[in-house]
Amino acid sequence: MHDAKTHDYFDNFTPYYNPKRFNFALDYLNNVANEKQILLDIGCGDGATLYLIREKTPLKKIAGLDISRSYLEKAKELTGCDTIHGSILNEKELQNHWGRFDYCVLGSVLHHLIGNNRKKSFIYAQTALQNAAQLLKPGGNLIVFEPTHGPSIVMALIFWIKKIVGGFVDRRVELSARWANIGQPVVSYYTPPTLFIDISRIENNQ
Asked: What structural domains and CATH numbers belong to the chain?
């Protein structure tokens, strides 16, 4: 389930994500969280989101999960967080942590879970949501923020263009703006309705 090309891409290229995208969650955490609770950032990267949470909410017990050891080292250096090396898709790597966290964050992770086709990618995203829910204590909170685009047919076309080009080019090929690229990493974006349906299935199963 590890996508080696995506893994290598993020290991060697750290994208910049505007921290303002997480303000809605900071407002929520400031209303409900306390310093005794613990939060896990799934796909924590270099720890930028964890740093924001530690500095701007009551939460001080924080942890990061990532498939990249180098990212986990950066996150720990930046925030002092606990680290878990593994994939949100791999139950065996996560079972020791079932029911451990009050909050789990999935930030811009789902569209990077890539299968051989769009259907398989969506199954991976569903698995990620299910495993994230397993990591929560009873009554815990799953915080998801994910870029959504449409229409679906255009997102499918982008997926296949990047998938095909990625078979020949093992790097990001920028066309104009920072986000306009082909090649790696391959992404499988949700439309707002499909993302809502997947998250609703998780809520209905709890």
From this structure: 4-147+191-205 (3.40.50.150)
